[in-house]
# Entry
Amino acid sequence: MKTDELQKPERIPTLTRKDVERKIEEKLAGKKPTKKLIVDSLFESLRELIMEASPVIRIEIRDFGVFEVKKTRPKPKARNLKTGEFVFVPGRRKMHFKPGKILKNFLKEVPE
# Structure
């Protein structure tokens, strides 16, 4: 077998809590941090990091979870249910969240 045949899957760039912290620091630079500003900066930073994905990215926050932008494959034989005709659906990107161990265990518990 040739080495060309054994290609490794493309590695997804992964950002961590430190990268999110740096992005928030940039947003809060020179401003008086209030609770609202900190929370808004967190979500704005996450949104910006996700939107910078080209084309896929993974943001891993330990003990919380992983946000991942994944590519979907095009669907050449999707069917329009109203008309019954076959249409081509191009590939796109989608957002995926995988909860961390603590959240996963909490969600497995049966509520009383």
About this structure: Helices lie at 17-28, 35-51, 101-108. The chain has one domain: 14-108. The radius of gyration is 20 Å. The domain at 14-108 is CATH 4.10.520.10 (HU Protein; Chain A).
